[in-house]
Amino acid sequence: MSALIEHLEGTNFQKSRAFSPAVITQGGKTVWLAGQTATVDEAGQDISGNFDAQARTIFALIDQTLSRAGGTLANLVTMTVFINDPRYGDSFVKIRNEFFRDGKYPASALLTIAHFARSGMLIEIQGVAVI
Q1: Would you say 95 and 89 are in contact if contact means Cβ atoms under 8 Å apart?
Q2: Which domains does the chain have, with CATH numbers?
Q3: Which value, to the nearest 10 degrees, does the dihedral of the CA atoms of residues 102, 57, 92, 9 take?
Q4: Alpha helix ranges (H) inside 1-131
Q5: Taking the model in full, what pTM does it have?
Q6: How far is the C-alpha of 43 from the C-alpha of 14, rounded, in Å?
């Protein structure tokens, strides 16, 4: 049985920040995604300290993981995003919009933290998908 995924309509603010207030699912299988980071891109280039490149690479890697489970980023129903500088928040929202162009955003939390496990990391994304 495939999942039925419904995104509740967001307020203008929620839409401007590229997240849904809630996502309702029925059926399907739940995929719990480990936190994903990236300090090298898919071509093997060093992207340490490059926030935009890390965010885009992480979304691509999450999509690849979901593909292995039978889904896509469209199946992502919630994400927790960790950044190390609040000034990256607006950049993250713009990048998330690139990956969810249809406006069906996952529910989300965006947190600023002091440190990551390795030097050069600026962002980590953890999520849950229903396929």
Answers
A1: no
A2: 4-130 (3.30.1330.40)
A3: 20
A4: 12-16, 51-68, 89-99
A5: 0.92
A6: 34
Sequence-ordered list of residues with C-beta below 8 angstroms from that of 71, at least 6 positions apart, any chain: 31, 129, 131
Q: How far is CA 72 from the centre of its chain?
A: 12
* Token pair belonging to 115: 């440190």
Are 67 and 61 in contact, with CB atoms under 8 Å apart?
A: no
- Distance in angstroms (rounded) separating the CA atoms of residues 35 and 91: 19
pLDDT of 78-91, one tens digit each? Answer: 999 999 999 999 99
Q: Provide the 10 A C-beta neighbour count for residue 4.
A: 11
pLDDT in tens, 24-78: 999 999 999 999 999 999 999 999 999 999 999 999 999 999 999 999 999 999 9
How many Cβ atoms are within 10 Å of 30's Cβ, its own excluded?
A: 13
